[in-house]
Design goal:
The longest helix has about 35 residues, at about 90-120. By secondary structure, the protein is mainly α. A two-stranded antiparallel sheet has the order 1-2. The protein is built from 16 helices and 2 strands. It is globular, with a radius of gyration of 21 Å. α1 packs across α16.
Length: about 375
């Protein structure tokens, strides 16, 4: 849950009196919260993981998906927005196209590797095949036809739905940047219009050819959150400063949400279960219901002030490690998607005891951290020294 007030970036630069460009320090809050988000996303994707009962999603309307999308929007403002500022429209389009290409093939790779792992894993303890547990049997029965669907993003199984959403949102970025030049408020009109159209079911994308099931994450709904983070980081949207009344309101929103999101309350009294069902359209995850946006923004406001101005309270070894994880978020995210199912399979065979789950989750965390440091090492091009 990064702060909406982040203003510094590693992609911007200051000019010294001598005319030399000097990089400004990177805002630690963005990378730290991205790192936290990567660990939460791993827990959310390990099947039947007991630790996942204690992630933020269990106590509120928003979850790690909001963290991923919002933070990606802020990071994109640093990377892609500065490209446009320095090199213009053609460079922006080219860089966005390159990133879309990379993420598309990362999506294909994740699908192939996970599907292969499910085939090798065989059958679960309850007699259900691991292929069936991810609803991949249609692909195994008709790989030729569905391979075309996989490559055209008309076949998007639920476990593999975040990266396709990200691809579509990234493709919208040049439109939003160019519209902000045409008129200050034009991108916000486009963002809102797309989101409203999504709430009325006008922008659904097909997820499989044999049914009318849409993509689990509708990018035209989720783009509202992505570009909110994007334009906050760009400075186009004004960032609210600290206000005691606003802080009280944010805390109230988070606390009042718990009874309608936490399953324990719904088990206590049917009122909470019925209320949760009534407001379900407002908390819908597929189309990004409005209460998810409100809840996440409240969490953001609280988080930014908890860590101090410009992240002044973010200190210590744990913070440093999570910051490195956040800096390599795409590689870490892909790794998490690849290892989540094997960890679940290992827990099935080991028995889902408290100790086994602790070992499995900690192994997952260690793998993500190791991936982050390894990718950072490769990016440093040590062979050039």
């Amino acid at each position: 849950m990064p702060a909406p007030m982040m203003a510094l970036s590693d992609a911007t630069s200051a000019v010294t009196p001598a005319g030399q460009k000097v990089k400004r320090p990177r805002d630690p809050r963005l990378d730290f919260f991205r790192g936290v988000g990567m660990l939460i996303i791993l827990l959310a994707h390990i099947p039947s993981d007991g630790w996942a009962l204690w992630i933020p999603a269990r106590f509120g309307f928003s979850d790690a998906t909001e963290m991923f999308v919002f933070q990606s929007g802020m990071a994109s403002a640093i990377a892609f927005g500065s490209t446009y500022d320095r090199n213009g429209a053609i460079a922006l389009i080219a860089r966005v196209a390159q990133r879309v290409w990379q993420i598309f093939w990362a999506h294909i790779l994740v699908f192939i590797v996970v599907a292969a792992a499910m085939v090798v894993a065989g059958t679960r303890y309850d007699g259900v095949t691991y292929v069936d547990s991810l609803n991949l049997m249609p692909f195994m029965k008709d790989p030729g036809h569905l391979l075309v669907g996989l490559l055209t993003l008309t076949y998007v199984p639920n476990y593999f739905d975040i990266l396709p959403m990200y691809v579509v949102i990234l493709a919208l970025m040049p439109v939003m940047i160019f519209s902000s030049i045409a008129g200050r408020y034009l991108p916000f009109f486009l963002m809102t219009a797309l989101w409203v159209a999504t709430q009325f079911g006008l922008t659904r994308l097909p997820a499989e050819p044999w049914s009318d099931r849409p993509w689990f994450f509708n990018p035209f709904g989720w783009q509202l959150l992505f570009f909110t983070g994007f334009f906050l980081m760009r400075g186009v949207l004004p960032a609210p400063g600290y206000d005691r009344r606003l802080m009280r309101l944010a805390i109230a929103v988070v606390i009042l949400t718990v009874p309608f999101a936490w399953v324990r309350f719904q088990e206590l009294h049917p009122f909470f279960q019925q209320a949760a069902a009534r407001i379900a359209p407002l908390t819908d995850k597929t189309d990004f219901g409005p209460l998810r946006f409100v809840h996440f923004m409240a969490l953001c406001y609280i988080a930014v002030h908890l860590v101090g101005e410009n992240g002044s309270r973010l200190r210590g070894r744990v913070v440093q490690v999570l910051t490195v994880v956040g800096q390599q978020s795409l590689a870490v995210f892909i790794t998490g998607m690849l290892i989540a199912q094997p960890i679940g399979i290992a827990l099935d065979h080991a028995g889902r005891t408290t100790a086994a789950e602790a070992v499995g989750n900690l192994f997952g965390f260690a793998t993500l951290i190791g991936t982050a440091y390894l990718v950072r090492w490769f990016k440093s091009s040590p062979w050039k020294s």
